[in-house]
Amino acid sequence: MALPQFIGHRGYSARAPENTLSALHAAADAGIAWVELDVQCLGDGTPVIWHDTHVRRCSDGKGRLKELTLAEARQLDVGRWFDPRFEGERMATLKEALDVIAERGLGLNLEFKLDHRDEPSPLIDAVLPILNGGLPRERLLLSSFSNDVLDEIRQRDKKAPLGILFSEEIPRDWLWDAERLEPESIHVDWRYMNEARAREIIEGGMALVCYTVNDPDRFNDWWDIGVTSVISDDPLRFDRFTRALEN
Ligand code: G3P
Ligand code: MG
What we know:
Strand content: 15-25%
Number of strands: 9
Helix content: 25-40%
Order of helices and strands: EHEEHHEHEHEHEHEHEH
Structural class: alpha/beta
Bound molecules: SN-glycerol-3-phosphate, magnesium ion
Strand order of the largest sheet: 1-2-4-5-6-7-8-9
């Protein structure tokens, strides 16, 4: 799999409300090749594109996402909080987001969000059938902070393109997870990057993906180590650096 140098975090979330269809169109309009989106299930089992466990931060409602039906979630305005220009934006289902991604020719890093108290099966049961056949494998990467999610996807699909997400420091035994899951990529919070570990990942033949990088000046030295991709709210901020790298 060839990952691009830049992936739009939650769509193009610097230009449109995160994890919405508008954020996908904004990414495609700006020439961003891939987007990262978060997926989780509503109370009625519908997979939707959403980051938080609650709806307050990114809508005009309040309460827990997993206590809403799709009909209730659709009542929420998920655009106005970002900018009045996006008033009327509705929460996107995974299916709707995939349709836009396919239509606009984007690649997708889909991040499975799972509360550590929940079982992974309902989320995976809901998501995998929607993904099947929706995008070619070379334009899809499935990631999660939850090894329960990744293990279960791997059990069901030996060829699923997986990314292991680490928060904070990459643990010393990261290779143990990698040998079991055979991921395409390791995703690291760039603030906790460690050069020795970064080199191990790259030498192991995996892509090294850094999130969420919004300051090109502070990140610049990491490119030399061999970082594959950066997930950014605003990939276009890196324009002058990518031009320099390409030359
Ligand atoms: O997938 C990378 C990044 O999105 C992980 O953190 O909290 O923004 O979903 P978060
Ligand atoms: Mg995410």
